[in-house]
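Deliverable D5.2: sample structural annotation.
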Amino acid sequence: MTRIQIQLPDTFPFATEITLLIGHINYGNHLDNAQLLGVVSEARLRLFKSLGYSELDVEGSGILVADAALQYRSEAFHGEVMVVEMGAADFHETGCDLVWRMRDKASAREVARGKTGIVFFDYQARKKVLVPEAFRGRFVGGVNVMSSGRDDDCAVKP
């Protein structure tokens, strides 16, 4: 079986620290795979909050998670502080990918990496909507963006 390979930018415009609690740990005494997505969801919420948004109000639109992909790189354990870095990439008409990397703060050991596909959504009309230009502008077209060749495709970098 071919393994997922997720390419990430060298740097990210956002980072947050999240301590692993006992509820994040499974019977193998390490970070549970389902709980990893919960940690990443918390980081996503903090990213949006840092930009002055909520997941229900990004310039008047909400978001939905459309898909997620991840790669484990090493174990993580109770009490470790994770640094989750995140940015936006691969913009299309109604969404983008939020790319992320999670590392242990003390050792800088990479624990996991991934991307979460989001689409912008009008919860009143129950339909997808265009990416708000103000949101896209925070990641595309500035000095913090590197194009990968397509007009609607970008990766964040310093």
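Annotation notes: The domain at 14-156 is CATH 3.10.129.10 (Thiol Ester Dehydrase; Chain A). The helical segments are 33-50, 133-137.
The annotation will be released with the project's public dataset once the embargo ends.
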